[in-house]
Amino acid sequence: MTKVNEELALKAAELVRLTHEAKIPVMVLFEGVAASGKSRLANELLLALDAKYTQFYATKTPTPEDLRMPFLFPYWTNLPARGEVTLYFRSWYASLLDYEYHGFKKDIYKDYQVLQQEIEGFEKLLINDGYEIIKFHVEISEDKRQEHIEKTKENPLTRWKAEEFEHAIPKELYENGMKELISNTADISPWTTINYTERTQAISEMYEVIIDRLEKALKKYKKKKKPEVDGKFTADFTTDLFVDTEDDMSKKDYKEQLPALQNRMREIQYALYEQKVPLILVYEGMDAAGKGGNIKRVREALDPTGYEVNAISAPTETELAHPYLWRFAVDLPRTGHIEIFDRSWYGRVLVERVEGFASTTEWQRAYEEIKEFEKSLITEGAIIIKFFLVLDKDEQLKRFEDREKTPDKQWKITDEDWRNREKWDIYLEASKDMIEKTSTDDAPWVIVPANNKKAARIKALKTIIGHCEKRLNI
User: Fold this and answer.
1) Rounded distance, CA 182 to CA 175, Å?
2) How far is residue 270's CA from residue 273's CA, in Å, rounded to a whole number?
3) Is residue 347 part of a domain?
4) Whether 215 and 265 share a structural domain
5) Are residues 283 and 155 in the same domain?
6) How far are the Cα atoms of 365, 404, 450 from residue 409, in angstroms, in the given order?
7) Whether the predicted pLDDT of 91 surpasses 90
8) N or C: which end of the chain has fewer CB within 10 A?
9) Domain total in the chain
10) Residue 259, pLDDT above cutoff 70
11) pLDDT tier for residue 163 given thresholds of 50, 70 and 90
């Protein structure tokens, strides 16, 4: 390495130490045709940075098992935490081209343009959350590229690599596809094209771009003002959205209907698996509205190998070091499986808005971010049903007091539950805004009257079965 490049490498490493201290997450993408030099550039940077907080991720052609997960799943699971760096040898862009070239999931996507839209939403969300995304497109002269390939073929220990090149997306298709993607996504986060034909110059250009971007990111961080934290609630708020809390059902009717519905739910589970359709059930609602009991009746007759329940509590330190959607994105169901969320990503616009855990900007932009997130799951073929369980204030008080008096229910009631009750009206406003701003045709909110727990359980089961029967055509 030249003295100039050594100095640039040291400067880049120093800046990354500062971004680590400032908790700025950095993502560096290397795209380019096979044997373009992108692996050498990536390795050059990897060796210059501190291994304690630098990761490397190489995109590969997905296996059949990989294809059972959402398109962006590998990138959510390999997202750097705040203050860390991840280098991507090929990225979601190469993955999109791979999907298109091999026709992966063509019957689901219909048009691969939807994956570009997912990418755009993904990058916007990350940038809004403070991520620095640096994208390199590596080019090389064809003579130099063929020279690299021939050297790889000549060495028996690297010959497998040359064979791998032969199975890659054809050079012309890749270049044309990347040209279009670069043009369409440059306004979200800019691309830099580097020609690797002259190695020393290419390394210099890479470091110069990284240094420039990180210096700007650190400057922006230093100028950052304390964010406004305001739930923007209305004085004397009222709404008639939640007035219907009662749905009559006798104990006899409940006992007659429940077994048949649960058996049908088990049949639905097998049909979902056979048709490889993921089902996502979201439960939100007022404290003591019976979410847990409702979920129990939905899953009571299910095969436990085909579903999971995620009971969401306060985020851990690791979860707080990532975007708020991260802990949900890494725990999504594979095709044919059921994922049940007892509270969910809607915490950003409910408890985080009410309690001031999210800034005004964060919870206000979350409505669209959540809709984009759910849209990407629907693109993957998922069925999403969202339940909001409603009970009136008197019934909630009755259930709280019952929990305090009953030894085996006392663990269910906490001081926080009583504090939340004092914020009843602002929780109502946050809930109304959430439902009105995020209910869509493909991911609807279903308001479930929950004063009568038995009626609420039957309604949820009937709703799930109805949606699934229609989608599965059974």
Assistant:
1) 10
2) 5
3) yes
4) no
5) no
6) 38, 7, 19
7) yes
8) C
9) 2
10) yes
11) low
Query: What is the predicted pLDDT for the residue at 390?
Result: 97
Radius of gyration over alpha carbons of the chain, in Å? 26
Q: How many CA atoms lie within 13 A of 178 on its CB side?
A: 26
- 415 burial (CB, 10 Å; 0-12 / 13-18 / 19+) is exposed
Q: Which residues of 165-187 are buried (b: 16+ CB within 10 A; e: fewer)?
A: beebbeeeebbebbeebbeebee
Residue 239 lies in a domain: no
User: Does residue 307 fall inside a structural domain?
Assistant: yes
294: which 2 tokens?
């409702």
- Domain, as residue range, for 311: 251-472
- Whether 13 is covered by a domain: the verdict is yes
Q: Is 282 found in the same domain as 204? A: no
Determine the pLDDT at residue 157. Answer: 74
φ and ψ at residue 282, rounded to 5 degrees: -115, 130
Among 141, 8, 29, 9, CA closest to 75: 29
Q: What is the mean pLDDT of residues 106-134?
A: 96
> Which sign does the torsion angle of CA 62, 115, 94, 72 carry?
negative
Q: Quote the pLDDT of residue 166.
A: 65
Residues 321 and 193 reside in one and the same domain: no
Whether this prediction's pTM lies above 0.85 is answered by yes
Is residue 295 domain-shared with residue 179, that is, in the same domain? no
> How many Cα atoms within 13 Å fall on the side-chain side of residue 44?
25
Which contiguous run of DSSP H or E holds residue 290? Answer: none
CA-to-CA distance for 299 and 316, rounded, in angstroms? 27
Structure-token pair, residue 221: 């961080």
Q: Is residue 162 very low, low, confident or very high in pLDDT (cuts 50, 70, 90)?
A: low
**CA–centroid distance for 104 within its chain:** 21
Q: For residue 17, what pLDDT is reported?
A: 98
> What is the distance between the alpha carbons of residues 251 and 248, in angstroms, rounded to a whole number?
10
Tokens 């809004």 identify what position?
128
Measure the CA dihedral 130/316/421/408, to 10°.
160
